């Protein structure tokens, strides 16, 4: 497999790039931050999506290096935005591998300090299935990240099997409703009932709710009527380069 060999040198050759997808505040319609989503500009294949190369990175022991790069690049970009007068927040996806890294939080602290940013500008997204798979590592990492001042977010909620007792104990601040529920919102009363219940549950536990995969005005309107706190999806913006996001955020202001 050639791609595995190429991925090893992709980091050194700066072929990786972070795209950013805005999250929108439900009440004000203003941008609250952006999720960092990795892309690979392959010299021959062109733009390669993470769905292709993240599994390869996981299989060949490259996911650690990839995760470290994402973290460092997010902090570097946050500093650049601050220098431009833009107070952006960035959400970073963490893999199960990173969650189990002994030095994850030290590494984050080092990146944050070296770029002179505040850890509160970072959100860490961990999928529900990963969070429930290794509850001990999750609980420890979540507590440390929260202590650092970052926001912890449970991603793709609704696709895993959560214990409500455990969910209640997790020091998370945000819950992202999986886009499969959002997609069906305007056609399925079942999806509507599930999303309504999830938002109420999350609010009862003191969590802010983000809906991902919002593609239509009708989905947005339903989510707002259900008191969803933040919205993300193609209806507002697709993931874009940092340069494009800078313009987007300034126009939005
Ligand atoms: O647009 P999208 O194709 O970017 O992302 C596909 C999947 O890849 C999503 O599940 C997303 O969470 C994951 N992903 C994107 N960027 C990163 C990253 O930097 N780290 C990890 N671990 N996963 C990512
Ligand atoms: O698993 P995670 O939630 O991190 O994945 C984010 C993924 O969802 C990325 O691949 C991103 O490109 C994609 N995405 C973001 N907004 C939308 C949307 O409105 N519709 C669809 N179909 N995908 C979206
Ligand atoms: Na995510
Ligand atoms: Mn998600």
TrEMBL record:
Residues 1-253 form the EAL domain. Keywords: Membrane, Transmembrane, Transmembrane helix. This is EAL domain-containing protein. It comes from Ideonella paludis.
């Amino acid at each position: 497999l050639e791609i595995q060999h190429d991925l090893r040198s992709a980091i050194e050759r700066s072929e990786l790039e972070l795209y950013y997808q805005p999250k929108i505040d439900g009440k004000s319609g203003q941008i609250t931050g952006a999720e960092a989503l990795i892309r690979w500009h392959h010299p021959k294949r062109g733009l390669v999506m993470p769905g292709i190369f993240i599994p390869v990175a996981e299989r060949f022991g490259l996911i650690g290096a990839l995760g470290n790069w994402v973290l460092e690049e997010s902090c570097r970009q946050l500093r650049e935005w601050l220098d431009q007068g833009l107070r952006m927040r960035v959400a970073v996806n963490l893999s199960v591998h990173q969650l189990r890294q002994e030095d994850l939080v030290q590494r984050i602290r080092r990146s944050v300090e070296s770029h002179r940013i505040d850890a509160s500008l970072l959100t860490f997204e961990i999928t529900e299935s990963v969070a429930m798979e290794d509850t001990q590592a999750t609980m420890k990492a979540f507590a440390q990240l929260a202590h650092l001042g970052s926001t912890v977010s449970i991603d793709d909620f609704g696709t895993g099997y959560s214990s409500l007792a455990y969910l209640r104990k997790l020091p998370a601040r945000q819950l992202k409703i999986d886009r499969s529920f959002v997609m069906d919102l305007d056609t399925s009363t079942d999806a509507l009932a599930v999303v309504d219940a999830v938002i109420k549950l999350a609010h009862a536990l003191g969590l802010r709710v983000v809906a991902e995969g919002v593609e239509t005005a009708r989905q947005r309107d339903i989510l707002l009527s259900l008191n969803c706190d933040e919205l993300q999806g193609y209806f507002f913006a697709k993931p874009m380069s940092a340069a494009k996001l800078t313009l987007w955020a300034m126009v939005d202001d």
